Each structure stands twice: as structure tokens, then as C-alpha cells.
Amino acid sequence: MVTGPTVKELEDISAELNLGLEGSTVLKEYQSVINDSLEMVNQLDDLVEPGLPVKYPRTPGYRPTREENPHNAWYYKCRIVGADNGNLSGKRIAIKDSIAVAGIPMMIGFSGLEGYVPDFDATVVTWVLDEGKLQEVPMMIGRVVSSRGIILGKATCEELCNSANSYTSGTGPITNPLNPRHCAGGSSSGCAVLVSV
């Protein structure tokens, strides 16, 4: 709750700024205007923050081991299967760790945010999941399975997405799988590595 200044505080400010309003009724009017404005601001705390429902179930996810993630390209792995119809049938998708995915940790490459877990999906995540498509895929042994767009996890990014190199992430450097003497670029270094391996 934000509280407004007292008349005495306004008088002190007036004196400090050489406004010459000390002892005048104008300061009471200023105080009234400020308090009316703050009353509206304080009402914001009573509002319920709007949010979209999380439409698709998901596994809680995990931090992959070094063996599973040799280039540090994955920040977090999970499994979220998309809708039954759409244009991303059978596509495996990595979401950059600057994009919120409900229930999956997000640190945007910054160790100061480690432990933050959003409770909502960013609009683009919902759009991606809505574009899955159910289809039959023949297997070598004659069985049929369904295929949908699947988010497999979150790709590591540079600290606060603010580097063109691949050495600033709070989880450590992202190495270039084609030439370890070169960087993997940035700020989407993890994404770059994941599409190359």
C-alpha cells in the first residue's frame, strides 16, 4: 500500500526547492490530489491478474546431465505434446529460455533468476502447441503410431539474451559442436547448437 506525503513533508520539499509554498493552503490541495491518485493506484493490488489456462499437460522436466547435454545447449528438458491438428506434425521443438513455459524453470541465462518457474505459457508456446497434428506413421514392423508437435525442452541462452557469443550463460558456456574453438553465437546459442546436432 502506497501512502501519500504529509503536509509537513510537502512543506519540507517546497523549502528545499525554494518554491515558497510553506504554510499555504496550496499544499493541502496538492496533498489531496496526490492522495486521490494513490487511492486509484492502491486499488490495483485488489485486481486479479489475468491469465490464460495452461492447455496441454506436461512432465515436470529436469536439468539434463552432462552426458545427455555435452554442449550445454539444453537448459531444461521436458515433454509437452501438442494438439491433434495443425501444421507442426511430428516436429520436435525447443523453446528459447527467454520464453515462459508453465511449470518449467526459466532463468534467461541469468543465475539471479534461477528457481523462477512461470505458471503460464507465453502466447507463442500455446500457438506452437495448437499447431500439432495427429497422423498415422507406418513403422518398420507394421505398427501405426500418432505423431504430434512436441516441445522437448528449453534451449540455453546468453545472460539476459545480451551477448553475441556463447560464454555468458549462468549455466556455463555453450560449446560449438562443429568446431570447439569457435563460439556458438548468441543470444540464441543453445538454439543454434540444437538445430546443428
Describe what you observe in this structure.
It is a single chain. The chain has 197 residues and is α+β, with helices and mostly antiparallel strands. Among the domains are: 7-46, no CATH class; 74-156, no CATH class. The chain contains four helices and five strands. The strands form two sheets. Strands 1-5-2 form a three-stranded mixed beta sheet. It has a two-stranded antiparallel ribbon with strand order 3-4. Strand 3 and strand 4 form a beta hairpin. The longest helix is centred in the N-terminal third of the chain and has 18 residues, at 26-43. It is elongated, with a radius of gyration of 26 Å. It starts with 6 loop residues before the first helix and ends with a helix. The relative contact order is 0.16.
